[in-house]
């Protein structure tokens, strides 16, 4: 169910530039922006058909993040830029750094070159922040970053590039946990496996607590961040400061990955058997999947590395207190909503 337009915060301007518009989060954000009457300019890779983005008031800009000459003119007249593009997985860490680190730097430089630089809202990841310290139950924005995966390190590299340029334009960084909802093919794999077999595979007998956020709630937070969010401090050396960062999750529920399987089962009306894999087996499966799958596959050693930390619990207190962010529905209702969408569209 889409968020009512009246419930969405206004964007700063009616002309918006979006990277990653053809992805899962990007398509939801673009839909909400169009419903608000915005002109949306979307950066789309030349090899991506993205026929679902053929809409009125939507301008397709063919280009790549690392080639600012392909989109520089599209920034003219934009007051707000939402940066969602990124590489989630790769066999080669250098590819992650090139896209998530240097690609983000090139975008920020292109924005800063404008006579009136736009507000840049960058979607990073909780993986860039890292898990909470062992002596704390939750991570918040005051904790220094400590990513544990190549993906997290690459997203943190992008944040560092943004901090170096924060004196040149207004920038806000949003770090979501696991984002899920309609049209999410990654979490659909988990729903489908449980729906068909009733089995939920986990790595180890103690699985991490998770931070989750529904895609519509994340869109709400991105619009709030664009309109009234705190902006990054200028740090030419890239040193971390919590100013301008917002962790994004529904912090009223932090199930473990084990518990999430049972809750997805309830959303599907299915009893679930949780099947723990010994950690060496999990690492072997991740390595095999990484070798066999196409680049960008869901399962890899990097993802096993993230799956075997004690916790990914974080707090969204800053976003709640300073931006008025509130998830529209509790986790179980959102899981049922997601399960219903998957069922109705034949994804199960």
Care to describe what's here?
With 348 residues, the protein is α/β, with parallel strands linked by helices. It has 2 domains: 5-182 and 211-252 and 313-330, Rossmann fold, CATH 3.40.50; 185-208 and 254-307, no CATH class. Helix content is 38%, strand content 15%. The chain has 11 helices and 11 strands. A 7-stranded parallel sheet has the order 3-2-1-4-5-6-10, with helices on both faces. A two-stranded parallel sheet has the order 7-9. Helix 1 packs across helix 6, helix 2 packs parallel to helix 4 and helix 5 crosses helix 7 (257-268). The longest helix has 20 residues, at 93-112. It is globular and about 60 Å long. 48% of the residues are buried. Residues 1-8 have low confidence and may be disordered.
Outline:
This protein has 348 residues and is an alpha/beta fold. It has 11 helices and 11 strands.
